[in-house]
Amino acid sequence: LHTAYRRQRQMCIRDRYRNNLNTEMCADFSASVASAVTSITLVGGFITLFSVIGAILTSSGIMHLLSLPFIWLGFDEGTSRAVICGILEITNGMSRLASGSFSFPVACALSAWGGLSIHAQSAAFITSSRLSVKKYILGKAIQAVIAFIIAPSL
Description:
The chain has seven helices and no strands. It has helices at residues 2-60, 62-72, 77-88, 90-99, 104-113, 116-126, 133-150. With 154 residues, it is mainly alpha-helical. α3 runs antiparallel to α4 (90-99). The radius of gyration is 26 Å and the shape is elongated.
């Protein structure tokens, strides 16, 4: 009788532990999925925001004004507009660059820069750490300049 009681008690403890473990696992899994959905929504929101800003700049004629300094530097108008779009959001900038007069150094610089959309995404995720967003953006700007300079030699 004593052995049967002990075995029953152990089974109850084991079942309670398993149920608690399953409950914790479900809660952790749910929290992970919720966090992932929030992250995906945040990333998609930034991409959409900066794409819309680029479209507004293009349709309002402001894009032409913003591209003038690049035209004065010797870029054609299509490449200049691609640079402005790429500064905002890399996907649109690369798409414009590929559909116009393609420039390998500009493509390298835009890839190194990443776009303000990606910088906003990064800032959203690193604000809880001790990393400096200013240093990150400065580093990306330096990286873009270096990429532009060394790209012709590749």
